[in-house]
Amino acid sequence: MQIGEVAARTELSLRTIRHYEEAGLAGPSARSQGGFRLYTETDVSRLMVIRRMKPLGFTLDQMRDLLDVTDRLDADGDLDPAERETLLERLREYEQAATEQVGKLRVRLARAEDFADTLRTRLERTATAVRP
């Protein structure tokens, strides 16, 4: 698929997709004869991993590292048991970091919802106090 379809499916801008390509995180698997970027489902999956990591505060280097870990685990045939366990431990660390960030975001969301409720209550109270 071409970059426009990838952008629609991932909800990432063309510019962001190109940025991730330039950063070496995810790029097209091929190019058409006309030079258009051509993406596979695997490429889209990589972009979705990146998209999910971004709001959790992961850096580009961390994204690159996690993608490397998952790529190496997916190509399992070449791994010895010690290397496999090392990669699994790194994956566990990312899962733990993601879980911690989700918890922090839940706290922030609860505070934001509480604030919005406070404003809504204030508006309702003020609106009813002004009515004749």
From TrEMBL:
It holds the Pfam family MerR_1. Keywords: DNA-binding. One of its GO terms (molecular function) is DNA-binding transcription factor activity. Residues 1-69 form the HTH merR-type domain. The keyword DNA-binding applies. This is MerR family transcriptional regulator.
